[in-house]
Amino acid sequence: MINIIKRVEIWGDSVLKGVIYDEIRKKYRRLENSHLMKKITGLGVDVKNNSKFGMTAPKAKKLMLKALEKGIDAEAAIIEFGGNDCDFNWAEVAAAPDKEHTPNTPLSVFKECITDMVQALRQHGIKPILVNLPPIHSGRYFNWISRGLDSTAILKWLGDKELIYRHHESYSMAIVNLAQSLSCSFIDVRLPFLLKRDYYNYLCEDGIHPNERGYALINQTFTDYAKVAMQRLLNG
Questions:
Q1: What is the largest CA-CA distance in the chain?
Q2: Structural domains of the chain sorted by starting position, each given as residue range(s) with its CATH number in brackets
Q3: Which of 188, 193, 199, 214 is the most buried (most CB within 10 A)?
Q4: What contacts 211, CB < 8 A, 6 or more positions away?
C-alpha cells in the first residue's frame, strides 16, 4: 500500500501567504483565488497555512514548537523563510552609513533556526519540505526601501545596489544547502523565475513580492512537485 500525504502545514512568510502589492490601491493585499494556499492543485491535499506577513525564522520556530507541543495533524510541513530574515533596518542604515549593520536574522542564526525546525518536525513524525526564495530585483527594491530616506547614504553603505540581490541570494542558497545536508525534500521556486529573461515582470513594484504572474509560476512549481513527490514522500 502506498502512503499518501493528505494533510500539509505551511510555515512561511508573505510569499506563501499569497501577498502582493496592489499598485492601484497602493497597499499590500492577499491574492485572491490563490490555489496553492488552499490545496495542492488537483491532488486534494488539505493545507493549513500558518504563513504570516513579516514572519522571520526565529519567530516561526517559537510558534512551530508550541504548535508541535499541542499536536499538529499533518504528515508533512513546508518551510519557507529568508526574505524578512535577510532584511535590514534601512532607516538605521540611512542614518549611519559608516557603521556596521546586521540583518534581522544573521545568516548563522537563520540556518540554526531552519535546522531546529526540521529536526523538531521529524521528532514528531512530520516530513519537512524546504522551499527556497524567488529572486528579487535590486533596483526596484532599492527604490522601495529608500522611500522617505537618504538613498545616497543607503547606497554608500551598500557599495552597489546589486549587493541587495547577492545578500538575499545567500539566504536562498542556505536553504538549498540545508536541504542537501539534512536530506530534506526541496521545492525550487527560484529557478522558474530565473529562466524568464524578464523575471522582473513577475515581481511587484517593491521588487521582492511575486505578482500574479509570479504566483502562477510558484503554483505550477508546487503542482509539478506534488505530482512527482507527494505520493511517495512518506515512503522515503
A1: 63
A2: 7-235 (3.40.50.1110)
A3: 214
A4: 20, 21, 202, 203, 204
